[in-house]
From TrEMBL, chain A:
It is found in: Membrane. Residues 208-374 form the Spore germination GerAC-like C-terminal domain. It comes from Neobacillus kokaensis. This is Germination protein. Belongs to the GerABKC lipoprotein family. Its main location: membrane. It holds the Pfam family Spore_GerAC. Keywords: Germination, Lipoprotein, Membrane, Palmitate, Signal. InterPro entries: GerAC_N, Spore_GerAC-like, Spore_GerAC-like_C, Spore_GerAC_C_sf.
UniProtKB/TrEMBL annotation, chain B:
The gene is gerAB1. InterPro entries: Spore_GerAB. It is a multi-pass membrane protein. The chain crosses the membrane at residues 12-30, 42-61, 81-109, 116-135, 141-163, 219-239, 268-293, 305-322, 334-355. This is Germination protein. It is found in: Membrane.
Length: 377, 368
C-alpha cells in the first residue's frame, strides 16, 4: 500500500518537471494566418497581404458556432519575412504563418523569382510546406481581400478552389515542398496555377497556368493549353475534358463542336540523336469518350472515324501550339533536359547544360482511341 | 552458472544495430551526397561490405579470446602497463564519442523542435536518461534495446511513402560521379558505422557459440547497411541534387513535407522517436566508458563511473554550440573513430596472429 502511494506521488510530481515553458506557443497569443499573398511594388519592396480569422460575437453556445470572419492586413518590407515582421507591429498578437493553407504570388514578384520569397518557409522548421501555391494576375491584395461566400475562411476557399481545379485537370499539383526542386537548375520547370480576380463577382477565376524558367515566371498558358500540357505531361489521375472544334460550316454554331473526356493516357517521351542534336518525340495515346455531341447521330463507324480524325488534327494543333508557347517561354515543363541528362549524359554536359528549350525540336505525336460515346449513339 | 550480465544472440543483433544507428543517420544522405552525388547509395553499400570484412576480423579476434573483453585482450596481448594505457585511450575515445553524440543531438533538437529551450535543459534530460539505463547491468540494457527496435520499424514503414513522389531521374545515370568520388563518399560514411567496436566489449557476455555470434553480427551489419542505403536512396530520389545540398537533415525534411489528416507535422513525431535511437547510442558509450574506467581502477565498481562519465559528457557538451565548432568536432571524432574502430582491432589481431597469443589462464570477463 505504502509503495503504491509512493509511486503515485513520484509519478504525479515528475510531469511537473517535464514541462518546458521556453517553446510553448499558445493559441491565444498567436494569429494563425491562413492565406498569404506576396507581391511587389514599384520600388521593389515586397508587399505581403494576409488574412486571418477573427471570431466575432464572442462565445456562442450550443450548436451554432461563432461566425468567423477573415481580417485582412497588408504590409510591405524589404524582403518577404521583413514584410511579415512589419505586420507584427500592426496587430495585437504574434503572427504565425506555419498554418498557411495557400500562398499566392503576384505576377510581378513571380517574374523576379519565387525562391527568394519562400526561402523563409524552407528555413523555418515550422514552415508550411504543404501549402498550395498559385500565381495571381493583378494585385494579390485584391485576391486576399475577396469577399466570397463559399467558405468560412478565405484561406480554405483558395485551398478548395485549387484542389478542385486540379481534379478537373486545369493545373498541376504543386505545394511549397514539391515545387522546390523545380525552382532549381537542371530539372523540370514548374507550371503553376494562374488565377484572376473578378472583384465585381467576388470570385477568383482560373485563367490557365503560369510558365516558369527555373524560378522566374516567363509566360502564360491559357486554359486549353494548360489542359493539353497536363495531358502531354501524362498525369494519370486527372480527368480532362476538352472542347474540340470539328467543323466550321454549320450555321448552328453549337453543331461545330464536340466535347470529349480523356479517360486514360499513355505518354512516352523518346529522344532521337542525330548529328549530335536531339529531337524529342512526345508520343501520347489518349483514350477518350464523347460527353457531348450536339450534331447527334453517331451511328456508322465511318462517321466515328471521321470524327476521330478531326479531333486528332485539332488536338495535335493544340499540342503544337502549347509546345511553341513553352519554347518561347523557355519553360521545360516536361523535364526534357533531365531526360537528356539521364540518357545522353556526355552530350548533356557538352551541349545541353542549361540549354534554351528552343534548341530542342519537340514533336507531339498523338494517337486517339474512342472508348465509348455515351449511352446513346 | 546463471549470471545476470548476459545477453542472447538476438539481443546482440539489436545491441549492435541500436548502437550504430544514432545521430549520424538523419544527416547521412547529406554528408555522403557532398562527395558521391547521386551515387551515394552505392557508397553506402561499399562501406557496408568493408565493414563486413571488419566484422570477420573482430570475429577472429574474439574467437581467440572467447572469454575476454577488449580491455582484457589488450592486457594479455600487450602487457599490463601498455594494456591499461590503451584502455585509458579507449575510455577517452568513448567519452569523446558520447559527447559528440550529445552535442549533435542537442544541435538538431534545438534546430528542429525547441529553438528557445536552453542547452543545459536538453542535455540534462538526455544525460539523466543515459545514467538511468547505463547504470543497470548488461541484461537490462540489452532488453531495453530490443524493445526500442520498434522505433526502427516506424522509419522503415513511413519513409517508403516518399517513393511515389520521387523522381528516379535524380540518381541517373547510375555511376555518373565516378569511382573515386563514390569511394571518397564511402570513407566518409564510416561514422555511421561507429559502434561496431562495442561488439568486442560485449562479446564474452553473449550466450551463444562463436559461430552464432558471427551470424548475429553479420545480420546486424546487413540490416544496418540496408537501412542506411534505403533511407539514402529515398532521399536521393525525393530531393533533387541541388536541393539536397541545402538540407543537412534530409531524412527529417522528407518527413516534414508529408502531412496526414491527423498528424500535421510528422517530423516532430519522428524526432521524438529518433531521440530513443540517440539515447541508445549514448547509453552504449556510457557503458563502454564506465567499463573501461572500472577496468583501470579496480577499486571502484562500474556504477560511480557512469555518473562521472555522464557528468563529463554533459560538461564537455556545454562548451560546443557553434555550427562550425560542431563540424570540426564531428570531423575530429570521425578521424579518431578510424583508429579505434578499424586500426586498433586489426593491429591487435595481427599481434595475436604473429605471436600466436591466445587466451590463457582464467582471466575471465567479470560481472560488473
Amino acid at each position: 500500500m505504502r509503495k503504491t502511494i509512493k509511486r503515485l506521488i513520484v509519478s504525479s510530481v515528475i510531469p511537473i518537471f517535464l514541462t518546458g515553458c521556453w517553446d510553448q506557443r499558445l493559441l491565444k497569443e498567436q494569429k494563425l494566418i491562413s492565406l498569404v499573398g506576396y507581391d511587389m511594388n514599384s520600388n521593389g519592396e515586397v508587399i505581403a497581404s494576409m488574412a486571418y480569422p477573427v471570431r466575432k460575437g464572442g462565445v456562442t453556445t450550443g450548436t451554432q458556432s461563432a461566425s468567423s470572419q477573415s481580417t485582412i492586413l497588408t504590409t510591405h518590407g524589404k524582403t518577404a519575412l521583413d514584410s511579415l515582421m512589419h505586420a507584427d507591429l500592426k496587430i495585437s498578437e504574434r503572427i504565425d504563418i506555419s498554418k498557411a493553407q495557400v500562398i499566392l504570388f503576384g505576377e510581378k514578384i513571380a517574374k523576379v523569382g519565387l525562391y527568394q520569397v519562400i526561402d523563409h518557409i524552407y528555413r523555418n522548421p515550422k514552415g508550411a510546406l504543404g501549402a498550395k501555391v498559385a500565381i495571381v494576375e493583378g494585385s494579390t491584395a485584391e485576391a486576399v481581400n475577396l469577399k466570397q461566400e463559399e467558405a468560412e475562411i478565405i484561406g480554405r476557399y483558395y485551398d478548395e478552389f485549387l484542389k478542385s481545379g486540379r481534379a478537373t485537370g486545369f493545373y498541376t499539383n504543386y505545394n511549397v515542398q514539391s515545387v522546390c526542386p523545380l525552382l532549381l537548375k537542371h530539372t523540370k520547370d514548374p507550371l503553376l496555377p494562374l488565377l484572376q480576380i473578378q472583384p465585381t463577382q467576388n470570385r477568383a477565376v482560373t485563367v490557365g497556368m503560369a510558365m516558369f524558367n527555373n524560378e522566374k515566371m516567363t509566360g502564360k498558358l491559357n486554359i486549353d493549353e494548360s489542359k493539353m500540357f497536363i495531358l502531354l505531361d501524362g498525369s494519370k489521375k486527372q480527368k480532362v475534358s476538352l472542347l474540340v472544334r470539328t467543323n466550321n460550316h454549320y450555321k448552328n454554331r453549337q453543331k461545330n463542336y464536340v466535347v470529349i473526356e480523356v479517360l486514360g493516357t499513355k505518354p512516352k517521351t523518346k529522344l532521337h540523336v542525330k548529328n549530335k542534336s536531339i529531337t524529342a518525340d512526345l508520343s501520347l495515346k489518349l483514350y477518350y469518350r464523347i460527353t457531348e455531341y450536339p450534331k447527334n447521330h453517331l451511328t456508322t463507324p465511318m462517321l466515328l472515324d471521321e470524327l476521330n480524325k478531326a479531333i486528332k488534327e485539332n488536338l495535335t494543333q493544340l499540342a503544337q501550339q502549347t509546345i511553341t508557347k513553352m519554347q518561347e517561354a523557355n519553360c521545360d515543363g516536361f523535364g526534357i533536359e533531365e531526360q537528356i541528362k539521364v540518357h545522353h549524359h556526355k552530350l548533356w554536359e557538352k551541349q545541353y547544360k542549361n540549354t534554351a528549350l528552343k534548341n530542342i525540336t519537340i514533336k507531339p505525336r498523338l494517337q486517339l482511341e474512342l472508348t465509348n460515346s455515351g449511352i446513346i449513339d | 552458472m546463471k549470471n545476470n550480465n548476459q545477453m542472447t544472440k538476438l539481443q546482440l543483433i539489436t545491441f549492435i544495430i541500436q548502437t550504430q544507428i544514432g545521430v549520424a543517420f538523419l544527416s547521412l544522405p547529406f554528408d555522403i551526397h557532398k562527395f558521391a552525388k547521386g551515387d551515394s547509395w552505392i557508397s553506402l553499400l561499399i562501406t557496408g561490405v568493408v565493414m563486413q570484412v571488419l566484422v570477420f576480423f573482430y570475429f577472429i579476434l574474439s574467437n581467440r579470446f572467447p572469454k575476454q573483453d577488449l580491455f582484457q585482450i589488450l592486457q594479455s596481448l600487450l602487457g599490463r602497463f601498455v594494456g591499461k594505457c590503451l584502455t585509458l585511450f579507449y575510455f577517452a575515445y568513448f567519452l569523446l564519442t558520447g559527447s559528440t553524440i550529445l552535442i549533435l543531438f542537442v544541435y538538431i533538437i534545438k534546430k528542429w523542435m525547441l529553438p528557445y529551450t536552453p542547452y543545459w535543459v536538453i542535455l540534462m534530460l538526455m544525460c539523466a536518461v543515459g545514467i538511468y539505463i547505463a547504470i543497470e547491468n548488461l541484461t537490462v540494457i540489452a532488453r531495453f534495446y530490443f524493445i526500442a527496435t520498434i522505433v526502427l520499424l516506424v522509419f522503415i514503414f513511413v519513409t517508403p511513402m516518399a517513393i511515389k513522389d520521387g523522381n528516379i531521374h535524380y540518381i541517373m545515370p547510375i555511376g555518373h560521379s565516378g569511382i573515386w568520388k563514390i569511394l571518397n563518399g564511402a570513407t566518409h560514411a564510416t561514422l555511421a558505422w561507429q559502434g561496431l567496436e562495442l561488439f568486442l566489449i560485449v562479446s564474452p557476455f553473449v550466450t551463444a557459440s562463436s559461430k552464432e555470434k558471427l551470424k548475429a553480427v553479420t545480420l546486424a551489419n546487413i540490416l544496418v547497411t540496408l537501412l542506411y542505403t534505403f533511407l539514402t536512396f529515398v532521399c536521393l530520389i525525393y530531393f533533387s541534387g541541388d536541393e539536397i545540398m541545402l538540407m543537412p537533415q534530409p531524412v527529417l525534411y522528407l518527413l516534414k513535407s508529408f502531412s496526414f489528416t491527423i498528424i500535421e507535422r510528422p517530423d516532430i513525431v519522428i524526432i521524438s522517436l529518433w531521440i530513443i535511437l540517440v539515447g541508445t547510442s549514448f547509453i552504449s558509450y556510457l557503458y563502454g566508458a564506465s567499463l573501461a574506467a572500472s577496468f583501470v581502477i579496480k577499486k571502484w565498481k562500474r556504477q560511480p563511473f557512469v555518473y562521472l562519465t555522464a557528468l563529463f559528457c554533459f560538461a564537455f557538451a556545454l562548451f560546443f554550440n557553434g555550427e562550425q565548432e560542431i563540424e570540426k568536432l564531428t570531423k575530429f571524432t570521425t578521424n579518431i573513430g578510424f583508429i579505434f574502430l578499424l586500426a586498433m582491432p586489426v593491429f591487435l589481431l595481427l599481434i595475436s596472429l604473429l605471436f600466436k597469443k591466445q587466451q590463457r589462464g582464467n582471466l575471465n570477463a567479470k560481472n560488473y
